[in-house]
Amino acid sequence: MINVKKILFLGSLLLVLSRLSFGQLSPGDLVQAHSHLEGMSNCTACHVLGDKVTNEKCLDCHIEIKTRIDKNTGYHASSEVKGKACASCHNDHHGRNFEIIRFKKDTFNHRLTQFDLEGKHAELDCEKCHKKDFIIDSLVLKKTKTFLGLGQECLSCHTDYHQKTLSSNCTDCHDQKAFKPASAFNHNKADFILKGKHRDVDCIKCHKKEMRNGEEFQYFSDIKFAKCTDCHEDIHKNKFGQNCTECHTENSFLTIKTNTNFNHNLTNYPLLGLHQKVDCKECHKGKLTDALAHNTCTDCHKDEHKNELDLNGKDPDCSTCHSVNGFKPSSYSIEKHNQSKFSLNGAHMATPCFACHLKEKEWHFREIGSNCVDCHKDNHEGLIAEKYYPKQDCKVCHSEDQWKQVTFNHNLTEFKLEGAHQKQDCPACHFSKSETGIITQNFKSFTNNCTDCHNDIHLRQFDKNGKTDCSSCHGNLSFKITDFDHNKTKFPLDGAHEKVKCEACHKEKISEKGRYIEYKIKEFKCADCHS
Question: 0.90 cut: is pTM over it?
Answer without folding.
Answer: no
